[in-house]
Write the structure tokens for this entry.
Amino acid sequence: MKKLTAFFVLLLLALPLLAQKTYQFATRDTLNLYLDVYQPVAGSLTTFEGHQKPTILFVFGGGFIQGERNNAFQKAWFERLTQNGYGVVAIDYRLGMKGFKVGKGLSGALKASEQFLLSQEMGVEDVCSTVNFLASNNVGVDVNNLVLAGSSAGAIISVATEYHIVNGTAPELPEGFNFKGVMSFAGAVISTTGKPEFLAQPCPIVFFHGTEDQAVAYEKYAHFGRGIWGSAYFDKQFDKKGYHHLIYRFDGRTHDVAAYMSALWEEEMNFLEQDVMLGKARTIDALVSDATLPTWGNVSLDSIYRK
């Protein structure tokens, strides 16, 4: 194990430093929000079969209580993307569950459901503010060629943003705007008004989710129309409606999948090339059993919010 750890440390040290520029894109609730722009590495291939590679707009995870746009784990993935001709925008967003105590019983659950929804909606607003900033400021990013990606809470924000865009309920955005794709690493949609429904075909979406996820519902956790609806739920909904999408179900895996950005490189590149750039209307449903994928132990709602 020590040798393996030393190898990864040396690998990270060997990577060239990411060149980034930081901008303030909004002030919300007296909080200044920033984003980092990483351009493709000079000399990297920035097209695929004649199509310009998109910029990945990344939303970090952390249960709406913690996390940062520029931690080392994510930056290793950003480095790989930029070396392969993709730009990256990594953003701040407001952490709506930070400092919130989840109470016990029905009363505690009801209050928590409202706060979770508020946290999601603030994140959606901050993503939309990012898009508006990129549309209004020349920072070297084509706002019409963005793929939204998120991990855990960031994946919830990502899927919910596309949900609002499709349903016409998103905060103000440039006219006709939509993302070129969404990559969801253990994402879902939070609702307090019943089952969320996409009213039209979304942009290309790929869902990555563990079948035993105890932190973000793989299918749903819901009572009295309040709860969280996950990847497997939307897969069923999309199948019924004939919406094209991709889902990778990681058999027996828990919330580890939220941190699989670097581990699923081939699947990500296949999605970006075939579904985003070439526009192939594919539907893929894959059950993945791979013992070589990393694991960091189980994470549950109780372990996050009732420490």
